[in-house]
Specification:
This protein is 0% helix and 44% strand. The protein is mainly beta.
Length: 145
């Protein structure tokens, strides 16, 4: 980290990494910045620019699905929250997860990748089958910062 000697804020110290990233807009930013209260080690904030960073989320059901017309399969898909400023800032794989009465407690992995800067994101589950259509799914979002 490099301490900036020409930072204009009088009440804070600014440290940065010399490595820079190009973002979608074409602008360049240090890949990491940290702000401290002046002459202390008390952090005020940090910024990291990371491209193609991903996270894994484990998904499972807390109760078995109902068998309806001989089928107990529940399919979970996701859609971006319609209030998000950017609808295509993240991708996820697989597109759907499948559960039934035999595997409902087995954790399945959803991998979420940020593909561009888009602020906070929320993925809302969409549930199909097994009587789960009646669940208010928007109270179980996946939040991405």
């Amino acid at each position: 980290m490099i301490h900036s000697t020409n930072h204009t804020q009088e009440n804070e110290d600014y440290w940065y990494v010399n490595e820079r990233y190009d973002v979608d807009s074409g602008r360049q930013y240090p890949c990491e910045e940290i702000y401290f209260i002046k002459n202390t080690e008390i952090p005020l904030g940090t910024t990291r620019v990371v491209r193609r960073e991903y996270s894994s989320v484990q998904i499972w059901l807390t109760s078995p699905p109902h068998r309806i017309h001989g089928n107990d399969t529940v399919i979970i898909e996701w859609q971006p929250d319609h209030t998000a400023e950017c609808q295509d800032a993240v991708t996820w794989k697989p597109e759907r997860l499948y559960f039934n009465s035999m595997n409902f407690e087995i954790r399945q992995e959803l991998v979420i990748t940020r593909v561009k800067n888009g602020g906070k994101q929320r993925l809302i589950p969409v549930l199909h089958g097994g009587g789960y259509e009646t669940v208010t799914a928007n109270v179980y979002p996946i939040c991405i910062k």
